[in-house]
């Protein structure tokens, strides 16, 4: 296994892993969840979960990858022959997320191009988004473009593709995020939004908000999908693992917080402080925000900058999804990288088409009252991901034992948070994961209203 690719430096690894973590989850999902579940309170819970569960599970996954130098299926099998199936679940999640993530990535390219070419006035119309995603051909073409961009990077491999792309895209993403956030919080009337986002309102506490924050944490940190195992397998033994995890978390929470600053104050300024404007759910970024940009000065510039940064965030995440699948295909079927990458990209395009058409000509076709894209999101994030995470905790805590992981971490780190790690993996994380799983399945079956 000594010819396995490697990141050339710890910085390269951190940027790539942070690139995976920072994505649509931070910029599109986090602000609307924060808006829905009480602003500051949600933020507080989110950060708490990141530094506890998030820290434990991310450390475990990266250590598994680095220890075994293998992609998920091989990694679990190497640690214990009977448990390779956990790797199968993890790889399956990445394989199923990639297609629909690319559909949304395609929408982002469309918005970026529309703003850049000065056509933004159309994006402010009520029907723009729904009629665009309902059309049968156009979104699929943008989706193909998004997959091709991802493929171009993955084809080039770990050092020349993923690491290089992350080193360019991530700094640009940070700079643009800071600029757009400053623009947003300095709009007249935006301060109310800043307060809403930062000051916790404990009267809005609910079990649902806790579960939403937990679920968001898993999704946002790209956990339980084989990604951190795959990237960990390219990490050098001498690179400080614990510190890397801290830095990745800092990036991820930092960009989520910046996204909150970009979106929530701008919407407040636009609506004259009416909180109802925040309740657009998933439409907040594609429907409400373009309206906000259109009423403000410099809309072409700010809108293009915003959608470019979202595009970069989405790209680095889809690169990680594709890489996790490609590296599994290479390892399991002994296929060379180029063939495996093309195969995975073609599959992602084909499997993504139903997710795209489900918003239009196939919208009648529903399972559990969900269209295809929502169904894929549900199966991966609400069902398979918690199952994978739960099995990972049980596997580490009770099958191979925590010490195996701690020893790997200690090769390069002091492992100051070892106690937190152990308690989380063995006791607290499994209980919370079961709670997420049960509530999300019951609510999808209509047995519980969230
Ligand atoms: N963490 C990414 C985000 O926040 O958008 C999304 C993601 C990437 C989820 C990779 C899952 C994954 F495997």
How would you characterize this protein structure?
There is one protein chain. With about 450 residues, the chain is mostly helical. It has one domain: Sodium/glucose cotransporter. Helices cover about 75% and strands about 0% of the residues. The protein contains 19 helices and no strands. The model has no long low-confidence stretch (mean pLDDT about 95). 4-fluoro-L-phenylalanine (PFF) binds next to helix 1, helix 2, helix 5, helix 11 and helix 15.
Short note summarizing the structure:
The protein has helices at residues 10-21, 24-36, 40-68, 72-79, 84-116, 120-123, 128-134, 138-155, 157-185, 191-198, 207-220, 227-232, 241-271, 283-295, 299-333, 337-357, 372-399, 402-410, 418-444. The protein has 450 residues and is an all-alpha fold. It has one domain (10-444): Sodium/glucose cotransporter (Up-down Bundle).
Give keywords.
mainly alpha; globular; 19 helices; 77% helix; binds 4-fluoro-L-phenylalanine; Sodium/glucose cotransporter
Overall form: globular
Low-confidence stretches: none
What is the helix tally? 19
Helicity level, as a percent range?
over 70%
Structural class category: mainly alpha
Please give the CATH class: Mainly Alpha
Estimated share of beta-strand residues: under 5%
- Ligands, deduplicated: 4-fluoro-L-phenylalanine
Counted up, domains total 1
Termini distance?
Answer: 48 Å
Give a quick account of the main beta sheet: strands, pairing sense, barrel closure. Answer: none
